[in-house]
Amino acid sequence: MSLSIRNQIAGTVTAVTAGEAMASVKVRLTGGQDITAAITTDAVKDLGLAEGSSVKALVKSTEVALATGPVEGISIRNQLPGTVTDVATGGAMGSVKVTVEGGELTAAITKDAVEALGLAAGTSVVALIKSTEISLAAASGSSLLGSPR
Fold first, then answer.
1. In principle, which of 90, 95, 125, 145 could form an S-S bond with 43, CB 3.0–4.6 Å?
2. Nearest 5°: phi and psi at 30?
3. Taking the complete model, does pTM exceed 0.85, yes or no?
4. Which residues are bridge partners to 39 per DSSP?
5. Alpha-carbon distance 95 to 110, whole Å?
6. Whose CA is closest to 10, among 56, 50, 51, 59?
7. Residue 77 and residue 48: Cα distance in Å, rounded?
8. Strand (E) positions, the chain?
9. Please, which residues bridge with residue 55 across strands?
């Protein structure tokens, strides 16, 4: 299945904590970083997710925020350090490619933000992603687990 979501990073489930409606799924990405995805418990069951399951973490570029360093005092748990490899800007928006351990992310942010942060190739950044904005796909098939929308 082809997807418009460019941000796809492989990983392995390290823990699943299920509640009545939602579950927290911890994933170790191929680069060694840990992320958390908040998905429905039905989705966990449908894909048979358990510790050791191979998955791909998928994130729309509009759901990736960038900071020039680690951020404290924020509820966003997923903070992936990386390096900007490319910046393209238009009249209002910018597309920023970031290399992280084990993959690449694209962030769609405003042109004003690109300029205010001084983003250019070689800039160190931290990609911030809310756990509710991470979808998981079973690595062995085309089934998808989406965020709870």
1. 145
2. -60, -25
3. yes
4. 23
5. 8
6. 56
7. 24
8. 7-18, 22-29, 34-40, 54-59, 65-67, 78-89, 93-100, 103-110, 124-129, 135-138, 144-145
9. 11, 138
